[in-house]
Write a structure and sequence with these properties.
This protein has 179 residues and is mainly alpha-helical. Helix 2 packs antiparallel against helix 3. It is elongated, with a radius of gyration of 20 Å. The termini are far apart.
Length: 179
Amino acid sequence: LGDSAGADGLWAALESVRSLWHWEAVHARSELALARGDTIRADSLLEKADRRSWPDAERAEWLARRVELRLALRDSAGVLTFAGQMIARYPAAPRATGSLRILEALHAARGDSLAPGDEALAAEVDRLRGRGESAAARLARAASAKPEASLHLRRARLLCELRRFPEALAAVSAAVKVS
């Protein structure tokens, strides 16, 4: 690893100054700790980072990295928390799909499925990735488990985009019935 201690010191100095490079410094220090086999420290460096001034893309990357590190630490509760936050706050982020897959795999390992609210969030991730059919199926499951007009209407709008008009009309009718 060469002079990783020296590199960590330089990244720490850069991290201590509020700048455009703050996320990069935090991320690099975390990666150095991980390269040394210290997953706990890698996660700890991310945990204590001040994210208030970061743009959404950096916050999304931070969350995705926390999901991966908590998974490596076998902290399923932490993984569920961070993956849930990822799909709720940043469904369009490039790594939202990976966080969703991890979230689903953890639920499946427990013999469980996503809660209706998480299923609706997952539908948005799928929709934003151009997977409209999958998103519509997710919204159908969510609306079936938790009959709310808003879920039926979201599904109706998506079905219209997919040009599945009879099903969209049925979803609107279902929304009217539950409201």
